[in-house]
Fold this protein.
Amino acid sequence: MTHSLRYLVNCSIMFTELPLLQRPAAARSAGFDAVEFWWPFDRPVPGDAAVDGFVAAIADAGVALAGLNFFAGDLAGPDCGVLSIPARSAEFTDNIAVAVGIGARLGVRGFNALYGNRADGVPAGRQDELAIANIAAAASAAGRIGATVLIEPISGPKPYPLRLAADAAAVVGRARAAGAGNVGILFDIYHLASNGDDIDRAIAAYASQVAHVQIADAPGRGEPGSGRLDLDGYLSRLERAGYAGWVGLEYKPTVSTQESLGWLARDRRGSTAPGRG
């Protein structure tokens, strides 16, 4: 690898051989000192016991929770986010305090706010206005703990309007213009490539707005080397463009999670990677 960026593991899509609360410890055993999760509960406002159990699993494993999704509905079903859907917007706003509360306890620095799918019978402009208002509210809460709200383009068949880096950059620009300075792009190379974006052009145009990076190979969303993407090259170019944050491993292992990590030397996992001591 020609870059020195830090890697963390997304425990919502990896280590799924284990129950969710055992995955942070498995990541630590594999050499990672930070993890990220999608929203780990089935509702926007879970009970205190569920939240405490999740927080304890992270703390007891001795890993940092670097990233967390806000509630975004059922990602395995028809949903891809709720914040721009009028009928579901309250689910997002109710979730802000819970998510940021977890973040305050665990030092989370990035919260992924997934846009809502386009809703039938609702003008796109109305959805976009609602989105900016909700993103600004989330950014205000996240800002109180020094965290950033992330805006991510997504691939797949759902009617999700943010597909290219330029789409996310436009939302970030609108949110910043509305006073939310702590909003940035979640640059997921797999999703962007799957949508046909020009990754090198996107890096050149938007690197200054990139606040977090995730990777998987394409096609297939497997581990690096299972597809055709020049992931190392893209990450090197991101680093040269000034990105110095985490790289989240958000892939579906083609073998067991542990076996799928063979491409990544153990001393390159986490914040103690060379050049990051």
About this structure: Residues 6-268 form a domain with the TIM Barrel fold (CATH 3.20.20.150). The radius of gyration is 17 Å. The first strand starts at residue 6 and ends at 10. The beta strands are 6-10, 34-37, 64-69, 110-112, 148-151, 183-188, 210-215, 246-249.
